[in-house]
Design brief:
single chain, alpha+beta, 5-stranded mixed beta sheet, 3-stranded antiparallel beta sheet, 51% helix, binds protoporphyrin IX containing FE
Length: 451
């Protein structure tokens, strides 16, 4: 029963402060043009809870550790994935782990979880190092030349995720898969903030090209599933586990559609984020040569020229901190969006039902109340645990990244392998533009010289 106190309390809640923006479109035009600046400026001007209007849609950006924890963990049941961004992503990934909800998600997560256990993942270390060694040899043969670092890291991480989780070497198809994925994601992202988003059935040129790119990926993924079905048995990779799994109640196996969606999700979520993290790390190391020298000396001391193994990692503290600091400054998942199911309240402000809620690791990681000199590059700040809720490159709560330990292991091994043998310098005068798409990536790659 509502008490007088409840009613008074409800009335006391006020809308959060925020920008007015365009009279009809609100902040939509700026969100399309430069979403990072929009969010950073709004946080600076209005604080930890900011209200926006995007056309007829109300949105909030929440940037306090308590608010983040409330949305992703404590009250996560009130925050769904029925956002425009996730709807567009579903057109590419279908209903896999990243995009599904409710009982489907719960079942799929339960089935997939054992494939991501720390011990199981440690078994992938050799394959990760082998891929990194091959990449190093290939890059060594191009010493003195210019490369696109993002492209190189994408190839490398695609091979790793293919070989380890899907037991499939996609290297031959890497460029084709990479190009199709890049196109699909760019469109999925662009549609998310588009003013008029035509349904995908309308045969516009874009929709036709979208369907062709999707067919390319489907072809690769379905071939992979068919090959695996021909030689059944658990081979220790995630795809085998998914194929072999049976529903606890019905005893049914997963159908091809669901397998396709899961494999596509892993292929995508499992390589582009890690590639971006590594790419920005090379960029930072080229900008901070002293940090690179210290990294080299750590690698020399611990490894003495040989390739790293899992057991070496606890001693490679600077290697780990450099990656942590790189993901603080350039979190590959720079924005996490949720659909608000029922009305809520955060820090005394109204959060209405059917609105959209944003948490931006990019903004939280630059919160001056949580981080000293937030724009500075200082790996040693990770000598201490960051305050709770201040660091969230992998999200939080039950929907936290399942590939967290996998990505961390891979990035550390790749960095330790390559940095021992090579140095990369940003091409003089070569600027880097951020592209805050679904992931945070460098626009047009990063041109670097191989040394
Ligand atoms: C540096 C690398 C990575 C970063 C920064 C990252 C970041 C994230 C974040 C922030 C989320 C939560 C999204 C949300 O709450 O809306 C997420 C979810 C997810 N990630 Fe990652 N990820 C990385 C690597 C990986 C890898 C290597 C894999 C697989 C091999 C992976 C698979 C997934 C999946 C399947 C989900 C959905 C989990 C669920 O909802 O149950 N990620 N990731």
């Amino acid at each position: 029963m509502l008490t007088l106190a409840d009613i008074l309390d409800r009335n006391a809640r006020s809308p959060a402060p925020g920008l007015r923006g365009h009279p009809i479109l609100g902040s939509l035009p700026r969100a399309r043009r430069d979403p990072i600046a929009l969010f950073m400026d709004s946080f600076r001007d209005y604080g930890e809870v900011v209200r926006f209007r995007f056309g007829s849609m109300v949105g909030h950006l929440v940037s306090s550790p308590a608010g983040v924890n409330h949305v992703l963990a404590e009250n996560n049941k009130n925050y769904g994935k029925q956002t425009r961004g996730y709807r567009n992503l579903r057109r590419v990934l279908g209903n896999g782990l990243l995009t599904s909800e409710g009982e489907t998600w719960k079942r799929q997560r339960r089935i997939a979880q054992p494939a991501f256990h720390r011990q199981r993942i440690a078994g992938f270390a050799q394959a990760m190092v082998r891929a990194a060694e091959d990449a190093a040899a290939d890059l060594e043969s191009r010493r003195g030349l210019e490369i696109d670092m993002h492209h190189e890291m994408m190839r490398l991480t695609l091979r790793v995720v293919g070989e380890t989780l899907l037991a499939y070497d996609p290297t031959d198809a890497a460029d084709e898969v990479g190009a199709a994925l890049a196109y699909l994601l760019a469109i999925a992202n662009e549609r998310t903030s588009r003013i008029l988003d035509l349904p995908p059935l309308v045969p516009t040129r874009e929709n036709l090209r979208f369907r062709r790119a999707l067919a390319t990926l489907d072809d690769v993924v379905l071939r992979m599933i068919a090959e695996r079905r021909k030689s059944p048995g658990d081979r220790g990779d995630l795809l085998s586990m998914l194929i072999e799994s049976r529903d606890a109640e019905t005893g049914e196996a997963m159908d091809d559609r669901q397998l396709r969606d899961e494999a596509m999700t892993i292929l995508l979520a499992g390589h582009e984020t890690t590639a971006n993290a590594l790419t920005f790390t090379w960029l930072l190391l080229s900008r901070y040569p002293a940090a690179f020298r210290e990294l080299r000396s750590e690698l020399q001391r611990v490894l003495g020229g040989r390739s790293p193994q899992v057991d070496d990692l606890p001693r490679l503290t600077l290697t780990r901190r450099i990656l942590q600091e790189s993901m603080r400054l350039y979190p590959p998942a720079w924005i996490i969006a949720r659909s608000v199911i029922g009305p809520d309240e955060i820090a005394g402000y109204q959060i209405p039902a059917r609105s959209v809620l944003f948490i931006s690791p990019y903004v939280v990681h630059r919160h001056p109340g949580l981080w000293e000199d937030p724009e500075g590059f200082d790996p040693e700040r990770f000598a201490d645990e960051p305050p709770r809720g201040a660091y969230l490159p992998f999200g939080g709560g039950p929907r936290m990244c399942i590939g967290n330990a996998f990505a961390t292991l891979e990035a550390e091994l790749v960095l330790a392998t390559l940095a021992q043998r090579l140095r990369f310098d940003l091409v003089p005068g070569g600027g880097v533009e951020l592209e805050p798409s679904i992931t945070l990536r460098p626009q047009n790659g990063i041109r670097m010289n191989v040394r």
